[in-house]
Amino acid sequence: MINVLIVDENSTYRQGMISFVKKIFSETFNKEIHVTSALTESNVSDAHIIFLSLCRGEHLSCIPELQKRKECIVIGILDGELPEVEILPHCFHNMVMITRKSTLPEVSEKILTAWRERTPFRCHSCSGCACKQMTQKQEYIMTRFRWGKTVSEIASELALSEKTVYTHKYIVMRKFGLRTDHELLIFLKKMYAHKYSLFSDIPVLRRLFRSAG
Question: How far is CA 193 from CA 4, 16, 63, 80, 205, in A?
């Protein structure tokens, strides 16, 4: 039995991928698959294959649950084009990337190659990780962008100049390779979802989430 974790809000794509992976492993290895969809430490630990939907910039962030994987392959699913090759954060070590526009033969080849070449995952510490992070001030500003506040409103609320707010927004977007406000909002939604479940014990973030209601 092959345990497959598919984390993707697009139900149509998710169901199609489940059917496709079932066919691949049935025909190639005569194996059945068991599918889960919740990104929890337990599911990650049990998984042999993880399909993870990633928005632009998310592959440069931190998803600590992935540190719990064992002999498992991670397939990152991107909406747009594949990012340039670079050093990935420890959470995404050895991740294989595909896009939603990748052809079935391309996806099949990447899955089978990754499966045949899989090795046990060695848990890394966060020390020296290549993940990108925001400063505390950037956290405050980006949280308010996520709430739908304007630059003027954020500047007034935080007693900053509008130029300072614009500058921090530009720095964050450049750091994570985000090109539009739409990409920024999608990225912030996913990032804060992770932080709410994983890091809410950090005082500054806990205050932010309480303020969000």
Answer: 22, 25, 11, 21, 12
Is 213's pLDDT higher than 60? Answer: no
152-165 residue pLDDT tens? 999 999 999 999 99
Residues in a beta bridge with 96: 75
Q: Specify whether the CB–CB gap between 146 and 185 falls below 8 A.
A: yes
Domains, in order of start, for the chain: 2-116 (3.40.50.2300), 136-212 (1.10.10.10)
Ramachandran bin of 177, using left for φ above 0, alpha for ψ from -120 to 50, beta for the remaining angles = left
Q: Name the helix (H) or strand (E) containing 15.
A: helix 11-29
Question: The tokens 């397939």 sit on which residue?
Answer: 75
pTM of the model: 0.82
Tokens of residue 54, six digits: 């990633």
